[in-house]
Amino acid sequence: MSDGAPAHEAGAAGEPAGLAAVVGATAPTFRPGLRGRSRWTLELVRVLAPRELRTRYRQSILDVAWALISPVAVLVVYGIVLTQSFDVTGEGVPYLSLAWSGLVLWTFFAGSLGGAVGSLISARDLVTKVPFPKEALPLSMVAASLVDLGIGLVTVVALALGQGIRPGWTILLAPVPLLLLVLWSAAVGVFVGVFAAFVRDVPHVVQLVIRVGFFATPVMYAASILPPAFRWTAWVSPLAVAIEAFRDAVLRGEVPDLPLLAVHLVIATVLLVAAVRYTRSVEGRLTDFI
Questions:
Q1: Cα–Cα distance, 107 to 216 (Å, whole number)
Q2: Which of 18, 6, 19 is nearest to 45 (CA)?
Q3: Is the confidence at residue 113, as pLDDT, over 80?
Q4: Residue 14: pLDDT above 60?
Q5: What is the four-CA torsion angle of 186, 242, 157, 102, rounded to 10 degrees?
Q6: What stretches of 117-232 show up as alpha helix (H) in DSSP?
Q7: 81: CB partners within 8 A, 6+ apart
Q8: The dihedral of CA 171, 230, 98, 183: what is its sign?
Q9: Which one of 24, 28, 233, 263 has the fewest CB atoms closer than 10 angstroms to its CB?
Q10: What angle do CA 180, 181, 184 make, to 5 degrees?
Q11: Phi and psi of 75, rounded to 5°?
């Protein structure tokens, strides 16, 4: 389980002088207004995400291999405990593939939130002195984590093939739950990043939620083993829905619950729009708190 970093002091958001130059260079390109601001936000995310990645793995001997090392360690420890002590199985799917697919998706979510929650705080000099779309900072952290997710997804397919799983045409539906995962991570990431600027307890709450959520979400086990009284959580939690739908499409060769995915996609989209609008509504007060 990846807890992420509560604040990227040395990350892209933690280099206000360099970021100020980047933001200043992009500002004249876009006109005022909602559409111009949205395009400016996307351009900043495009520029800041690679910057965050370079900083994250700077002077690292293993480089992006760390994207796999942490979840592998979790897989070994928790996999042994669950399979040997509690007789947890893959419910018709090789357990290793089932658990690894859950870990890859969960690690993306946890890493995105861990980076987003401290993105504005660690860039306080930039936030207080330079006008720009503040939602770009947490969104760039989510975008940077997409690289780790991509690497992880390749290993999921490779492991599944190695264990004798032959994905069918349903693998073409895998982008749907992945889109839900990304949208939800972006929406929550923007909210917690802004909330953290006002309330310093938020990063601690996020880390607690990530730790508890790891066990409450079917990451290392199939949702089907949940007791009937708690089965509803697999339908309500967008993370559980995304993980199980991805397993259906890639590992089980089954069509995911598309209506359920559609409902969660709509909710995630609405939440992301609300998060961005909230950020814009409180930008004027951020300088007083951060």
A1: 15
A2: 19
A3: yes
A4: no
A5: 90
A6: 124-129, 136-162, 175-198, 202-216
A7: none
A8: positive
A9: 28
A10: 80
A11: -60, -45
Report the pLDDT averaged over residues 252-274. 96
**Cβ distance 1 to 106 under 8 Å?**
yes
Rounded Cα distance between 198 and 194, Å, is 7
Residue type, 98: L
* pLDDT at position 287: 78
Tokens read off for 218: 């079917």
3, two tokens: 């807890």
pLDDT, tens digit (0-9, with 9 covering 90-100), for 211-246: 999 989 999 889 888 888 888 989 999 999 999 999
| Sign of the C-alpha dihedral computed for residues 57, 67, 157 and 107 taken in this order | negative
How many whole angstroms separate alpha carbon 120 and alpha carbon 125? 9
Q: Is 7 strand, coil or helix?
A: coil
Q: What was the pLDDT predicted at 12?
A: 39
Using DSSP's 3-state secondary structure scheme, residue 87 falls into coil
Alpha carbons within 13 A on the beta-carbon side of 121: 22
